[in-house]
Amino acid sequence: MTENMSVELEDLGRQIKEDPSNLKLRRLYADNLLENNFPDKALEQYKYLMGIFSNDPVMHFNIGVVYEKLEKLDLAEESYRKAIGISPNDPDFHYNLAFLLDQKNQINEAIIEYLKTIELNYEDENAHFNLAYLYAKQDNSVEAIKHFEIAIRLNPNDIYAHFHLGTQYSKTGQIQKALDEYEKVIQLNSNYSWAYYNIACIQYEQGKIDEAINNLKKTIDINPKDIDALKTLANIMIIKKDYILALNYLEAVILQKPDNGDIHYDIAQVYKSLNEFEDAIFHLEKALGFKESLSVSLGKVISEAEEIKKSHIKSNN
Does the model's pTM come out above 0.85? Predict the structure, then answer.
């Protein structure tokens, strides 16, 4: 038996060898090979069949799927376009072409194909969602919101549509609507940490610091490695002058990003506030060693380190 191939597939293969002219059986074999993730073997069968059924749009479409699985995107695009050329009113053909064009970063062309998909099948929730996502990437919030809202009407339990709709609402200043969408995400999946984080960011901007802290803590309870949440908590603790707690959060970040100059610089600032000068100098020098990820000017960091050394020496005298 071929590795990982089911008994049924093996049996179909044997039947083809015994009756190679049975085209219906060969097509069934090809379709099953594709469905069970044997793209190379499926392609062999489809190519054989294509010599006979060259105008079969589904055959071209399936070959496109095979090429996409094999990461031969140009060949996949060619096959999808052939399928569309023969049968231009099949929404699935346009959808797959749109998805492929998105992978190739041909965003405008992908949008056109998603619009054609929706024109042919308005109920395709995935097409609306993907189209909205592309509009969001283009900063076209009006169209993004429109299609995320449609996707949600078609599938009210799509947490990703709710989340991204919330992001677009927030971006356009519709803050309460954004909060409502993030709350819906949490209702659908209480472990979706990014929803808590986005709520916290809004609350922080509104000056609701305690509420923001609560949601940031929920974020890291779910995902202890959420760097953005840890950094935001650290910043809040610095403002509250709770430097020890700020340091704890920043150290959790540096464990994940040991070569990040900005984080070392931030840690140095906390140590300065704690009058822990040697540790401050250590992290300033670390920051200088990772200048590629340092947004503060080298001159400023060097000057700070020298000033601390002078004051530290004086304090020891």
Answer: yes
